[in-house]
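ok so for the tutorial part 2 we go from a plain amino acid sequence to predicted structure tokens. step 1 is just haveing the sequence, like this:
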Amino acid sequence: MDKKAIEEIMANDALLERFMEILVDEINNDDEAYYKKGRQLLDLCLSDENADDFFIAICGCSVDSLLEKL
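step 2 — the prediction. this is what the tokens look like for a chain of 70 residues:
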């Protein structure tokens, strides 16, 4: 990861918004099957104790909240 680029983006609200626009667009246009994406994300939860932070940042819900909805 390019930490310098990340720090520059974090200091600029317009770039932060653009980063999120690009991320959402890439998610929406990725043709990977949902079950494969789900497996990768849940594998992350099992291998990284901080994975919950990703889910909260991306959608406002913890993994446990998402599992309850399932």
